[in-house]
Amino acid sequence: MIVENLRDELTLVLSDADEIWVAVALIKDQALEFILDIVKDTCQQHFLVGIDLPTDPSVLRTLQKREKNGFSEALIFNEKVTFHPKFYLIRTGKTYTLFIGSANMTEGGFNSNIELSYKIINQEECISSLFWFNNLFKRGLPLSNENIIEYEKWHNEYIDFENKSYQFRKKLNLKNSTIYSFLNSIDFTDRYFKKEHHLAFRKEIWKEDSKEIIEERDFARERMVDLHESIYPYFKDRGIDALKPNPMKEHLISMIRQIDPSHPKKINALWLSYGKSEEEIKKYQRMVGNDQKSKQTFIHHARLQIRLDLKNIGIWLLFAKENDGGLFDRDHFKNKMRNPGFKENFFKMLNSLDDQYFISVGGERRYCTSFNSSDELHIYCRKDDNKLYFIIGKDYHITDNEMSTDNLPKEVLKIFSELYPFYELMRHRIE
Questions:
Q1: 83, 166 Cβ separation under 8 angstroms
Q2: Phi, psi at residue 109, to the nearest 5°?
Q3: Helices 29-38 and 57-67: crossing angle, nearest 10°?
Q4: How many helices (DSSP H) and strands (DSSP E) are in the chain?
Q5: What are the pLDDT digits (tens) for 157-173?
Q6: Per-residue pLDDT, 14
Q7: Helix or strand run (H / E) with residue 169
Q8: Domains by residue range for the chain, with CATH
Q9: Rg, C-alpha atoms of the chain
Q10: Is 208 helix (H, G, I), strand (E, B) or coil?
Q11: Are 189 and 169 in contact (CB under 8 A)?
Q12: Taking the complete model, does pTM exceed 0.85, yes or no?
């Protein structure tokens, strides 16, 4: 549907919105105030702001203040390419509405200019656009005081944006600040994982291995052990007791220190996994022989896991990568998908999951309910890249109700119970 006056259309949908995502090249104060005045205080808000055009520094200050209420997060996009989208996605309940086109978040873009926007209500397209937004959002920089001050200097000195914006933007020294204002805005009182647990996986320390950094990660590891002790005794009641923790107790939780400090790897998350039993793993080790034995341990096979990083908690079914020796499960699944009956059953199972489940194949994510047929799903699964993880699961934001101290263990057990049939269907076995 073609939209000529974006202000009128946004007015109709924003007042009931539960969550909004905005990515625009330019924001002006009046248009931002229009949005913020309409949405509910409880509406989750995500802004990705370009600075190639003269976005007012006061806009960045307003968004920074909004983060403190815990319902808003905003990032600056500043890379070597020009940031030029005009993207407005609104969720009310489980229904999404998307507006894309020529209109920036300005009074002219919303009302007085001749603009052309398009309203999209096809849910599959809306959900696909959310993945697009999230991928860009990960590349943004925080609205820290130091970044806003740096931008203000540039904005005030070089106001002739038409001719000089790109030339002088390259001189901006914006930083991926350790302040992480979005974490400062969250009330962690009833959160299972606290601010310190998440901060242990901030980007600037991914490859560091000092005593202090290891202590930070160990604090998060101890909380993950608490989670294990609270959920594992209930596996039998849930009918998922075939899932076993890593038999190497020192590796119950993923690594918190560098194996080889001379070639450090990114420690950007922590996870607790359950999968094949020690007896099953030994069968694989005997099959491949001593030369490949080291690539047939617990972590080299399909597993259900809880994953903690800086911003999110994921509950996933995950298949290992080729470099991890994880081809038994993936090859088994690929072969089974050639069987029409198996393919149809897998499609029906996937489609029965709720609309927040995603499937990630070859680095691309789609919601599990977005496939219209087993053939479409099969074509998507053939994009599998053995160098990347194959995942079915859910991601949760820190503020989600399910991530509270009381609810998170229950949610893990619930999601594990829903993913376990996929684990049984897709994994390889040695009879």
A1: no
A2: -65, -35
A3: 20
A4: 16, 15
A5: 655 544 444 455 555 66
A6: 94
A7: helix 161-169
A8: 2-184 (3.30.870.10), 205-426 (3.30.930.20)
A9: 24
A10: coil
A11: no
A12: no
The span from the CA of 247 to the CA of 277, in Å, is: 8
pLDDT in tens, 312-367: 999 999 998 876 556 889 999 999 999 999 999 999 999 999 989 999 999 888 99
Q: 175 pLDDT band (50/70/90 cuts)?
A: low
Residue 70 pLDDT > 60, yes or no?
Answer: no
Mean pLDDT value of segment 369-377: 94
Q: Which of 112-116, 251-255, 376-380 has the lowest mean pLDDT?
A: 112-116
Q: How far apart are CA 102 and CA 84, in angstroms?
A: 9
> Dihedral angle at the C-alpha atoms of 247, 250, 253, 257, nearest 10 degrees?
-140
Residue where the block lists tokens 């999110």? 312
Q: Which residues pair with 367 in a beta bridge?
A: 358
Pairwise CA distance, residues 267 & 261, whole Å: 12
Dihedral pair phi/psi, residue 412, rounded to 5°: -60, -45
Average pLDDT over residues 265-273: 94
Sign of CA dihedral 160, 166, 172, 177: positive
The answer to whether residues 402 and 73 touch, using CB atoms and an 8 Å cutoff, is no
Distance CA 154, CA 404 (A): 42
Q: Which residue reads 């000089």 in tokens?
A: 164
Asked whether 52 and 169 are in contact (CB, 8 A), the reply is yes
pLDDT at 211 over 60: yes
Both tokens assigned to 92: 């009310």
Scored b (16 or more CB within 10 A) or e, 324-353 reads bbbbbbbebbeebbeeeebbeebbeebeeb
The pair of three-digit structure tokens given for residue 191, joined into one six-digit string: 């959160």
